[in-house]
Amino acid sequence: MSPIISVANLSKTYGSGFKALKNVNLDIKRGEIFALLGPNGAGKTTLISIICGIANPSEGRVLVGGEDIQTSYRKARSLIGLVPQELHTDAFESVWATVSFSRGLFGKPKNPDHIEKVLKDLSLWDKKDNKIITLSGGMKRRVMIAKALSHEPQILFLDEPTAGVDVELRKGMWEVVRTLQQSGVTIILTTHYIEEAEEMADRIGVINKGEIVLVEDKATLMQKLGKKRLTLHLQGKIAALPESLHHYELELCDGGATLVYDYDTKGERTGITSLLGDLRTAGIRFNDLDTTQSSLEDIFVDLVRTS
Amino acid sequence: MNHRAIRAIYLFEMARTWRTLLQSIVSPVVSTSLYFVVFGAAIGSRISQVEGVSYGTFIVPGLIMLSVLTQSIANASFGIYFPKFTGTIYEILSAPISYFEIVLGYVGAAATKSIILGLIILATAGLFVPLHIHHPVWMLAFLVLTAVTFSLFGFIIGIWADGFEKLQMIPMLVVTPLTFLGGSFYSIDMLPPTWRTVALLNPVVYLISGFRWSFYEIADVSVAVSIGMTIAFLVICLVVIWWIFRTGYRLKN
């Protein structure tokens, strides 16, 4: 299946000379949730802005639903709904008016039933006549999602959708996003919350200093780059590791009460079997052990540090 | 053509007018009435006639133009500047709408407001002085042309401005003085020859002269020159706006 968004050799240099994007190539699959991760200033928002028509590219090409965003911008943009990072709202408009305005702006005929459904899905129905200025930050965020969904887009960009949103509301938003995906909408989200990407995404892209560092299925990424940690709780404290264990990358913790061993799950051999054998030979016994999987956050930090 | 988008922007902007009715319509009407009291009654009583027309009647076209010019600029500049200021411009830029359609929505609404305002001031003037419009069609044509042209100019200012101070700067420091010196309250024939020549460099002279001609068939410069100058300014504004959208100046970069 052809990608719903195809970014080819995209670069953006601002007037100041700052290169925000450097030869970015990226395909987004139809119907997926794609999480774009990157530190501040990595180029996430610039990339989204170019795809959505808010910023001009310096070089390269973007196709949305097979349509060029510059030469066939009407068709391309009509497929996209955008929820920007900042809470940009018309303070003095009512929720209903601003969402209806967005639908009109995208050239769609009036459809009160659809607007009603969107507002109800986002728990905004009882606020439909309220002026936006009277709403809380979380509700304003939902109004922005409602505006983006007002014209029934096939693609939804969520730029930091849960920034500054409390935990409960964040989980509510995740539910909304999942429901949208089930209805066939492709979702691209940028986030600082790694757990959000871990929870939501089908695929993950990492961008740093304007370059795409990696694009991978989340599960594969976790498997390929994920490290596991084996922690052994010793029967008795030891002062130092015996000579025979020096070739293992072991760490003695808790004043000699625990041994920590990091191993790579992608390697052919984890070294655990031989380690346990060598421990027995050395007379070091343990009464408990546990393993933990490194989080996406650890992977992300590693990637950004090394790229 | 994305008619629904043009309509959405137009109605959104018009809704702002009704929401801020006092500021948009009532306040210019009040200030114009004050002009009539001060210039028409107090000063006008000491000036017999200007080119065969009573002074109070003579200043009506100039007063309408004064409000139409300043309000067109204010409406259009604020209309496009405010979404830039609040950030809601993202939605306009990411919508499937052409630059021409964006301009049509914003400038159309700004010009509509100015035209309504001009007609209200005309009606208000009718309460103070006797009025007879010789060429009503030309009067309307001048009114529409001026409202559209200066709304385009206001749109440019709104794009250019990166702060509220700049938004006010051109209207206050350039347009208002030019309007006052453009023959709103006098005929430039009343000026000494040197100042008359200087006054002809002021584009507003041509607007007011043509507009006044449509009322009383008296003009400082020929009507053809007035129309020509207004259209020339319109074309300049259109070219600047075309350039703004082509380059993304202060919008997309």
General description of the model:
The complex is a heterodimer of chains A (307) and B (253). Chain A is an alpha/beta fold. Chain A folds into three domains: 150 residues, P-loop containing nucleotide triphosphate hydrolases (Rossmann fold, 3-Layer(aba) Sandwich), CATH 3.40.50.300; 59 residues; 70 residues, 2-Layer Sandwich (Alpha-Beta Plaits), CATH 3.30.70. Helix content of chain A is 33%, strand content 28%. In chain A, strands 6-7-8-3-9-10 form a six-stranded mixed beta sheet, with helices on both faces. In chain A, strands 2-1-4-5 form a four-stranded antiparallel beta sheet. In chain A, helix 3 runs parallel beside helix 5. The longest helix of chain A is centred in the middle third of the chain and has 16 residues. By secondary structure, chain B is mainly α. In chain B, a hairpin with a 2-residue loop joins strand 1 and strand 2. The longest helix of chain B is centred in the first third of the chain and has 32 residues. Chain B is globular.
Question: How does the SSE layout of this entry go?
Answer:
The complex is a heterodimer of chains A (307) and B (253).
Chain A: E1 5-13, E2 19-28, E3 33-37, H1 44-52, E4 59-64, E5 67-68, H2 73-78, E6 80-83, H3 95-105, H4 112-121, H5 137-149, E7 155-159, H6 167-182, E8 186-191, H7 194-200, E9 203-208, E10 211-217, H8 218-225, E11 227-234, E12 250-253, E13 258-264, H9 272-281, E14 286-293, H10 296-306
Parallel strand pairs in A: 3-8, 3-9, 6-7, 7-8
Antiparallel strand pairs in A: 1-2, 1-4, 4-5, 9-10, 11-13, 11-14, 12-13
Helix pairs in contact in A: 3-5
Chain B: H1 3-19, H2 21-43, E1 49-50, E2 53-54, H3 55-86, H4 89-94, H5 99-128, H6 136-160, H7 164-180, H8 193-199, H9 203-216, H10 223-247
Antiparallel strand pairs in B: 1-2
Helix pairs in contact in B: 1-2, 1-5, 2-3, 2-5, 3-5, 3-6, 3-7, 3-9, 5-6, 6-9, 6-10, 9-10
